[in-house]
Specification:
The protein contains six helices and no strands. The protein is mainly α. The N terminus is likely disordered.
Length: 196
């Protein structure tokens, strides 16, 4: 069982102790291992870590380790990168967009961006409950960053609070969009890893 075939993957031992062919390993074991790892990476999204990017890196490394039989077409990996990047972009821009729709200046929108990012990190660390800490921290950070910079820029307190509320709502929408894009990346890689 400790032997490694030419393709670098360990042999699977059958029920009677005989080694199954190496091709069986790359057709069954490797895709299952990738699916398991990518499911773990997807779970990391719940605590604010970059699960979609870890899934893509796992797929790329698996392809690199199996040059004789690539598991993912380059277009699939490219599509996964585009989907993950779109999710990241939506997360970053949504709080600023929410603040702008509530009447924020560029200063308030910038506060929403910075506050959302910092709040998400602090919330994840301070309240390490999956999803909850990241969502609460990010929304609170977007609210505070936007409202404070808007008020310092001369807006009345009521207007600044309205802008902060818009930033917080936008941040929550952005987080959901990022999570949705990561689920799409997971599904894309989960299906295509088993295709011949």
């Amino acid at each position: 069982a400790g032997r490694f075939p030419m393709d670098g993957w360990p042999l699977i031992v059958g029920p009677t102790g005989e080694a199954l062919p190496s091709g069986m390993t790359s057709l069954v074991l490797v895709p299952l291992l990738i699916l398991l790892l990518n499911t773990c990476w997807a779970a990391l999204l719940l605590v604010g870590l970059p699960g979609a990017w870890l899934m893509i890196v796992t797929a790329g490394v698996a392809d690199w380790l199996t040059p004789d039989r690539p598991l993912f077409h380059p277009l699939v990996l490219g599509a996964a990168v585009l989907i993950a990047a779109a999710g990241e972009g939506l997360e970053i821009l949504a709080s600023a967009k929410g603040a702008k729709q509530a009447g924020a200046s560029k200063r308030g929108a910038l506060g929403a961006l910075i506050g959302g990012l910092l709040g998400g990190i602090v919330g994840t660390v301070m309240l390490p409950v999956p999803v909850v800490g990241t969502l609460i921290g990010g929304a609170a950070g977007a609210f505070a960053g936007s409202a404070i910079l808007e008020h310092e820029g001369g807006a009345e307190a009521r207007a600044a609070l309205r802008v902060g509320s818009g930033a917080a709502a936008g941040h929550l929408v952005g987080m959901l969009a990022k999570f949705g894009s990561a689920v799409v990346v997971w599904a894309l890689l989960a299906v295509t890893v088993f295709l011949p």
